[in-house]
Amino acid sequence: MMRLFVIIQIQKDVNDVAGSSAELKIPTHIAFVMDGNGRWAKKRFMPRNYGHSEGARSLKTVIRSLAELGVKYATFYAFSTENWNRPQEEVDGLMQLFDEQLDSLKEYEKENIRLLFIGDRTRLAPGLIEKMAECESKSADRTGLTVIIAVNYGGQDEIVRAVRKVAELAGEGYIKPQDISGKFFESLLDTNGIPPVDLMVRTGGEKRLSNFLIWQNAYAEFYFCDTLWPDFGKKELIKAIEDYTSRDRRFGKVSVSKADA
Ligand code: FPP
Fold first, then answer.
1. Element spanning 149, H or E
2. Are residues 229 and 4 in contact, defined by beta-carbon separation less than 8 angstroms?
3. Which numbered atom of ligand 1 lies nearest the CA of 98?
4. Of these residues, 13, 15, 35, 49, which one is catalytic?
5. Long-range CB contacts for residues 133-141, cutoff 8 Å, separation at least 24
6. Is pLDDT above 50 for 60?
7. Exposed/middle/buried for 153, CB within 10 Å: 0-12, 13-18, 19+?
8. pLDDT per residue over 15-31, tens digit each?
9. First to last CA, the chain
10. CA-nearest residue, atom 12 of ligand 1
11. Ligand 1 and 37: CB distance under 6 A
């Protein structure tokens, strides 16, 4: 009964946005660059960290919507390896916000949501590292949406860390150069076991990747919108998925219609 209600509600949301009942192609993995928190706060004459806490509210709305839509994996860029260069007050505020939010995120039991973290944890506070590990172990058996939060994450840094592992394995004689394939290398990335990104969404009007999931975004479709992250909700998410639905994904091949011609 509840499931039927959810399906009807999603169809209603889609119709509200699209004005049609066109079927949505649901991406398996969506990645989000949650940009625009600072500008959102500035517009309201509020400190940047206020924008981040409103951004955390949006994050939770989006997570619930993704679970309802049946998306299997969603990765969120919460803190990059470059974000340490922001003013100390903002960095401290963000770290405190993550710490507080993890308490509520680990409770997504009813929604069957699994939580994972990617990035280099070694620079994070021991208390935060512990909470992250607790979130992961508490939710490990859940089979619904997997939410991946990138903290102290950089795509280049992830690749360098993987290359170091390759060098260690080779140095200890476990692998030879010919053993190194794309699949093998992928298994050494933070995202081991997670499928590649299908749709990469960036809010806040900028059109760049900012060192996010460089390897995993190889064949992703990109969606950029001007909405600032704290204003991004279910309707905007459905718009992004509608746009994705209209794309012709060729993965380097020719489209079916062209191949027939
Ligand atoms: C980029 O916007 C946003 C960030 C660097 C932080 C994103 C963090 C959150 C949304 C909170 C997430 C919470 C958890 C628990 C993961 P910006 O500050 O660069 O915005 P601007 O471009 O307007 O200055």
1. strand 146-153
2. no
3. 15
4. 35
5. 134/106, 135/102, 135/105, 135/106, 138/106, 139/106, 139/108, 139/109, 139/113, 139/114, 139/115, 140/114, 141/114
6. yes
7. buried
8. 554 444 469 999 999 99
9. 47
10. 56
11. yes
Could you say which of 83, 99, 120, 231 is catalytic? 83
What single-letter amino acid sits at 26? I
Residue pair 151/77 in contact (Cβ under 8 Å)? The answer is no
Distance 258 CA to ligand 1 centre (A): 42
The closest residue, in CA terms, to atom 22 on ligand 1 is 36
Average pLDDT over the chain, rounded to an integer: 91
Burial tier of 197 (Cβ tally within 10 Å: 0-12, 13-18, 19+)? buried
In the annotation, is 92 catalytic? no
Instruction: Record the tokens describing residue 188, joined without a space.
Output: 């050494």
Question: Is 35 an active-site residue?
Answer: yes
Q: Provide the 10 A C-beta neighbour count for residue 116.
A: 20
d(CA 79, CA 174): 34
154-to-87, 146, 167, 212 alpha-carbon distances in Å? 19, 20, 20, 6
The tens digit of pLDDT for each residue in 145-201 reads 999 999 999 999 999 999 999 999 999 999 999 999 999 999 999 999 999 999 999
Taking the CA atoms of residue 219, residue 221, residue 226 and residue 228 in that order, the dihedral angle to the nearest 10 degrees is: -70
Residue nearest to atom 10 of ligand 1 (CA): 55
